[in-house]
Amino acid sequence: MRKAEVIYKKELAGLLTQLDDGSFEFKYNELWFNDVTKPSISLTLPKTQQEFKAKHLFPFFYNMLPEGSNKQIVCFENRIDTNDHFGILITTAKYDTIGAVQIKKIEN
């Protein structure tokens, strides 16, 4: 199992988890959820206490991944399998992203 913090404008918004079977879960942080001034991170992930579950990486996060030759370079330089979307996400979305969301790996 791998986990990452979902940071929205430098504040913890939720937790993204890849389970051992390859599926994914996303859950909003309790403090984020309880603050009515905090928005959902995506229209496809509305602010709710329920845990979102998916067999594949959620489209919102998948769209943060590099494509084409940029993806190839990232994978080659960091020795990441091109099909390891979670690995690519936690490698590329921790600092430089388009938009307000960053992804930071939680070390076990």
TrEMBL record:
NCBIfam families: couple_hipA (TIGR03071)
Keyword Kinase belongs to the record: yes
A Pfam family the protein falls into: Couple_hipA
Highest taxon of source: Bacteria
Domain annotation HipA N-terminal subdomain: ranges: 5-103
InterPro entries (UniProt xref): HipA_N1
Kinase keyword on record: yes
Keywords from the UniProt entry: Kinase, Transferase
Protein name (record): Phosphatidylinositol kinase
One annotated GO molecular function: kinase activity
